[in-house]
Amino acid sequence: MSLVPLVALIFFGVSGGAYGIEPLFSTSGPGMGILLILIAPLIYSVPHALVCAELGTAIPVEGGYYHWVKRGLGRFWAFQQGVLQWVCSFVDMALYPVMFTSYLSSLISAVAPGEHVLFEIAGLKIDLNWVICVGVIVIFTLLNLMGAGWVGDSSVVFAIICLTPMLILTAIGGYHLLTDGINPVSQLTAEEGQSTWNAFGSGLFIVMWNYSGWDSVSTVAGEMENPKKHLPKALFWAVLLIIVGYLLPSLGALAVGADGDNGWKSWKDGAFSDIAGQLAGPWLQYTVTIGGLFASVAMFSALLASYSRLPSALSRDGYLPGWVSKESRRYKMPMASIIGSSVIYALFCFSSFSNLVIFDVFLTNIGILLEVAALIMLRIREPELERPYKIPGGWWSIGLITVSLTAVSVWAAIEQYDEEGAKAVVLCLIVVGISLVLYPLLSLRKAAKQSAALDRAVANGTVPGEVYGLSGSQRDSAHSDKAATATGTDSVEA
């Protein structure tokens, strides 16, 4: 991937455009909504993007943040990072095909959930909606099997398709704001009695979802063109593109005012389509809806490229069977990892699993905090590590980043608990507990395989140093964090 496709891949890994930002305004109000679009990047997105820029250029290998944590904190925490983020993707990734069918059902009512049930298996209703979800997954799984380069190039095309309707909406909405003398932020909060803190807190929880995922592209660093040079630039341009992509359409959409069926007081997910219809008629409504269709599948495609590298990295380190990381001969893609992840996502597209997404915030922020901890430990333990991009400001900047990301993550967890109750905490603890139990079990399996491989090597007269030290079956490759150091030894022991 070159620079422009890399920017597009980050764009869809984090945002996909203003589609989905609508509930921010009905929850927090127009003034606070616009303020949060501008403030959230400063306290959440930019700090995380800076962490990703430094670690991503210092350790630019496939597996990304899994290897950052392994090198900084050790194998135990790396295993937790890899497993927890992959499990988090089960429900997160299932949202995008469902979002696709949601937009499609506004154009074709027959594809709405439960509208056409084809048959039933063990209590699960297989309807047309789910079949379309699976179709979307199959198409973009095939695209991913052709390599991250294809995913990046297609993301550029999808970005143009997704952003064009929003640019038209911005222009028409902006025209109405000027000619009708409308102040889009005349009201700070959503309701007269709502406190500023409540509006800020509720809205920040929503906007965090729309500003997270800056580390997603790191897992395909092994397939980037000069990641040490391009990754910081791509993160910078993606931050700007995403902020503008939220801000301008939101301002234009506020031209519809507060009241009425499409007023900002009633905005929810997908409201931009109806807003476009009110501003310019059915033609723009359909255009924005089509943009939403492409945004949902482009996000799925970009994030599949990211998440599917996690089981592959775990396999290369010996925790999962070797065939999980087996690559196709032509495209050098981890076929089993990509296909297996897609099968799981298809199963989670059933509506009965949709409520499991409530643990997403907890697991996502655990991952972010592990990356920050890895950054700090690498600064302490490996001060001479080559860092093509280094966060300016020394320890003062790292301290501010740590405080900011920790505070936002803790607050988000509290907000999630207030909103969902103990259920979200229980689900999170179950997933974390399973991961904690799996580590010693899989480590024992890994040690037994390494011992057997070493015995075979000695019996065959092979030099022990030539035996692949992580999985017991493969030599070091560009997919390992050892490629970044050229030491030929495992980074943790080194």
Question: Could you walk me through the main structural features you see in this protein, from its secondary elements to its overall organization?
Answer:
The chain is mainly alpha-helical and 494 residues long. The chain contains 16 helices and 2 strands. A two-stranded antiparallel sheet has the order 1-2. A hairpin with a 2-residue loop joins strand 1 and strand 2 (124-127). The protein starts with a helix and ends in a 35-residue tail after the last helix.
Secondary-structure map:
Blueprint lengths: L2 H12 L8 H6 L1 H29 L6 H9 L1 H33 L9 E5 L2 E4 H18 L2 H32 L16 H15 L16 H27 L17 H10 L1 H26 L1 H8 L18 H13 L12 H22 L12 H27 L1 H38 L35
Antiparallel strand pairs: 1-2
Features:
mainly alpha; 2 strands; disordered C terminus; globular; single chain; 16 helices
Précis, in short:
The chain is an all-alpha fold. 66% of the residues lie in helices and 2% in strands.
Question: What is the topology, as strand order, of the major beta sheet?
Answer: 1-2
Number of DSSP-assigned strands: 2
What's the shape?
A: globular
User: So how many helices?
Assistant: 16
**Succession of helices and strands:** HHHHHEEHHHHHHHHHHH
| Share in β-strands | under 5%
